[in-house]
Design brief:
single chain; 475 residues; mainly alpha; elongated
Length: 475
């Protein structure tokens, strides 16, 4: 009979064998397709090496496995279009090469991924065109320029401007490759229009690929930042305290992400929507209660914690109702992790009977924990803003102590275990929080009352050589 350790080792070997067979099958399929398409096997070898690099070396970015599938899908689209154009003896300058590179850069917001795809696509298209080295150089340069021009693009005009610059650059490159001679003037017009048409194609198909890849771009994020969005408009009218809290959390998160080189725009927009679940019962949250009193005074701690914890589930349902992107739903689901609802947990302990046991797990959010820098930073910003708002007579020293305490408690509680934040990052984030919160919640000077100020003023001395006013001096 096999022991448990032996069975687990067999399963591990089996898993590794399956993984090895998958990679081997993929390489054989690539070789077969290359042979069928007439590609040089050296090009296929280069593509395989790029995939190996992407999987093994480029681990620091924690690229999700499905991204490789998305890249393969885009690569196949370009491969099919190029093969169709070349097989029908059309001009190779009709190939929409820059469109694929721009799409990858905008969708994944990563220059390294765009560079790898540019290398792969330029090698492949050059091989399809009969190992045309000059064409490969032209496409490689166009791809690199495309990625640089649209990286971090926040407006659609940026993509159109990039298309025009790419077209002009391709004309200059073609003129240089052909030895500064204008041969076949129509080809120069084609490469100029190619860049512009690629930009138009990107603008048209970008929403489709956002939906297919379940990602979100900077352009879509800025559209969601519009405060006339139905969800934000409802929050402003029905839960003004939560709305103001979300704005401050968004500003804190954006500045902190800039300090640690995370996606600042994604964090800011995610923070705007992270508490939309409070729209279901806004009066049960302290920032919306005002002078109406605390609704939880009439509830038991167990009921109160259910109301508080349900805002995460309600937020996810509301986000799906309004068809918000899945990247934003992550902020709603993860911004508390599986942290403890400490206030009501302490109230339950104070009111517990001697023979009754209060389990801490019952008072914890369902999770999961934040798994990206952006979601973790929003969780920290949410906690420090709410705690700072509750401070009486806040000072810089009090805010600094509070921020460090909350960040340390989140770290000790294991809420940051699944994200890539380092201790150095946490120190930078804390410094940003302290600086911004000190500016927002600093103590203010008490201005004297207007009536008291007028009473304390001495009457001005009467100027000489002026007529006497009996009404002013009368008792």
């Amino acid at each position: 009979m096999y022991s448990a350790e032996h069975l687990s080792s067999l399963l591990k070997i089996s898993g590794n064998a399956r993984r090895f067979m998958t990679y081997a099958f993929g390489i054989l399929a690539a070789l077969f397709l290359s042979y069928a398409a007439g590609l040089d096997l050296s090009i296929t070898t280069a593509l395989v090496l790029l995939v190996v690099y992407f999987k093994c070396v480029y681990r620091s970015a924690r690229v999700q496995p499905y991204i490789l599938l998305h890249l393969s899908f885009l690569f196949i689209i370009l491969f099919g279009a190029s093969h169709l154009i070349i097989s029908r003896s059309w001009s190779v300058f009709f190939i929409p090469f820059s469109a694929v590179v721009m799409l990858v850069t905008i969708l994944f917001n990563d220059l390294v991924i765009a560079f790898l795809l540019t290398v792969a696509c330029s090698l492949t298209v050059a091989g399809l065109a009969g190992n045309n080295f000059s064409l490969g150089i032209l496409l490689f340069a166009s791809g690199i320029l495309s990625a640089l021009l649209v990286y971090g693009a926040r407006r659609r005009i940026t993509i159109l401007r990039a298309g025009f610059i790419i077209g002009v650059t391709q004309v200059l490159l073609l003129f240089f490759i052909r030895g500064y001679r204008v041969m076949d003037p129509e080809s120069y017009l084609v490469v100029l229009c190619n860049g512009i048409i690629c930009a138009i194609i990107v603008l048209g198909v970008l929403p489709i690929f956002e939906f297919l890849f379940k990602t979100i771009t900077n352009i879509s994020l800025l559209e969601l930042a519009d405060f006339n969005h139905p969800v934000l408009n409802r929050m402003m009218l029905e839960a003004p305290g939560t709305y103001h809290h979300s704005l401050i959390v968004g500003n804190l998160s954006e500045a902190a992400c800039q300090a640690v080189r995370a996606n600042a725009l994604l964090a800011r927009i995610g923070a705007y929507y992270h508490d939309i679940g409070k729209l279901q019962k806004p009066e049960y949250f302290s920032e919306n209660q005002g002078l109406t009193g605390n609704k939880h005074d009439a509830l038991s701690p167990s009921i109160s914690k259910l109301v508080i914890m349900n805002h995460v589930k309600d937020g996810i349902e509301l986000a799906r109702k309004y068809r918000l992107n899945g990247r934003l739903i992550d902020f709603i689901q993860l911004h508390h992790g599986n942290s403890l609802v400490y206030y009501f947990y302490r109230r339950a302990l104070e009111n517990v009977d001697e023979d009754q046991e209060i389990k801490e797990d019952v008072f914890r959010y369902p999770g999961p924990k934040p798994n990206t820098k952006e979601t973790a930073i929003v969780m920290l910003a949410d906690s420090v803003e709410a705690a700072t708002r509750a401070l009486k007579e806040p000072t810089v020293a009090k805010i600094e102590e509070l921020v460090h305490k909350i960040v340390n408690n989140k770290f000790i509680d294991g809420q940051l275990d699944e994200c890539d934040l380092t201790l150095k990052d946490l120190e930078r984030i804390s410094s940003v929080f302290i600086r911004i919160l000190s500016g927002i919640y600093h103590s203010r000077v008490n201005y004297p009352d207007e009536k008291n100020e007028s009473n304390n003023k001495k009457p001005p001395k009467e100027a000489p050589n002026q007529p006497h006013d009996d009404k002013k001096n009368s008792p």
